[in-house]
Amino acid sequence: MCGVRARVGRSAAAAAVLVAVAGAAAPLDAAAVQAVDGRLRTMGTGVPIEAARVRMVDADAAVVASVFTDAAGHFFLRAPAAGRYTLVVERPGYASVVSDELDVPEGRTIRHVLTVRPVALVDMAGVRPGPDEVVRSWLAAAALGRCGPGGGGPVVSGIVRDASTGVALPGVAVTAEWWPSPGHLRLLQALTDGRGVYVFCAPPRGVDLALRAEAMDRTSPVVSARVDGEAVRADLELGLVDPAEPGFVLGRVLDFDTREPVPMAEVRFRGTALATLTDDLGFFRLDSVPRGVYVLEVDQMGRGHAEKAVRVFGRLGHQVEVVIAPEAIELDPIQVTVRSKRWYDDMVGFVGRLARGVGSFLTLRELEQRAGPRLVDALRGVPGLMVREAGRYAGVVVRQRACEPAVWVDGRPARPDPALGLNTWNAFDLEAVEVYRGPAEVPAQFARGSACGAVVLWTRRGG
Questions:
Q1: pTM given for the model
Q2: What is the CATH number of domain 358-459?
Q3: At 411, which helix (H) or strand (E)?
Q4: Cβ neighbours of residue 150 closer than 8 Å, sequence gap 6 or more
């Protein structure tokens, strides 16, 4: 996709950010300081974002204050004087955003809620860039496909590689920033394609663009590119893989015809001692896998033999699905979905609770089968729950207790939008759901505030 342009000025709103002004508060103290009291949330889910850097920039493009958000997504920035300021938010794993110019009155605190979009999960196909002439042909084809013949102006493009392995990285967010005039930050954003190529169509001429790539919890070094001609190439290196650390594999074996889970299947990496059996729900996990390319072999008595080529990257979790049929299945090409280590740990915990069988569980496959975009529709039919709807609002009630369960998102307590309830979250954004109908069922890590049970949501994020 071509870069999406955002402009911060006196009247133009920033792209991909919602700024809600809740009004002015009383002066903070006798010194009558002026400040911005804010919250940072994930777009769509409202989950607080921790450790994001928020900078306050004045009309001369100077940074006058800078803080990191806390565990609740809260930030507080004191302005040196009354005036108009811009907020710039950066967090690896999320698209960087800027606010519109904010009017900060003397001696007053204004409150803002900012929402940012998670970067798409990285699907690393293990593409290795070929000779430079091959890469140039990729860039030309991508520019033609995204910008059209002639492109309507100059084109900035390049390939994003992993810094240690040289592997091209699909699905990585690339940002280009520049200051056309004091107080007016502009940016473009694009995602790399299946070959790790990004393209910005018709960026401004005669300016220095600051380019960087982001995925999961990593950010590349900034590369400067000046647009003077018709085509500029700027490659980026992102330290996504750590060769010194092992990878982690979480997978599932399914029947080729029915797509039902296959228990007690033997899973092993050919030529190694790494082997395990699938559980009753078809899941398997392999910890501390050295980085490299492996052949994953799957066998079960009475069925054929299945193989899948898997590339394991250091420091990352990997999601693999294998189907096994009555007859042997030929080797698939290398294909694996790469996630953050935190995602791997979260899903391993989910699989463990699923195996214990206390509560009700919806896996990704079941969510896709049950629901459209509304989470509440996926929860219809879950034993012990009753759906209640009123206009745009939708929620669930535990029948025996006649009260609403607490909501947790990615391991943290979350508050639904009062006007939307469970419609706050889109089912298509979720990896899995857990439902507990009372304190006797709720696991210890979700017990806080869960006297009426809990609905635990796991999103499809990589960071």
A1: 0.56
A2: 2.170.130.10
A3: none
A4: none
